[in-house]
Amino acid sequence: METFDDSIRENALPAKRHLELVELVRARGQMTVNELSSHFGVSGDTVRRDL
């Protein structure tokens, strides 16, 4: 059974990843979806959703 705390953690991960993704792209100027997916260890679809 999922607890309230587990739910908060799962929902926070994409938000945290999104912020890190934005900071990384700003620092480098540009990155491909493949580069971002490799960096974060997620699929290209996940990167696109985070954008």
Would you write up a description of this structure?
- The protein is mostly helical.
- It has one domain.
- The chain has helices at residues 4-28, 33-40, 44-50.
- Mean pLDDT is 81; it is low at 6-10.
Question: What is the count of β-strands?
Answer: 0
Q: In percent terms, what proportion of residues is strand?
A: under 5%
Q: Largest sheet, described in full? A: none
Helix-strand string = HHH
Number of domains: 1
Helix content: over 70%
Sum up the structure in keywords.
single chain, 51 residues, mainly alpha, 0% strand, globular
Question: Short description, anyone?
Answer:
The protein has 51 residues and is mainly alpha-helical.
Helices and strands, with pairings:
Blueprint: H1 4-28, H2 33-40, H3 44-50
Helix pairs in contact: 2-3
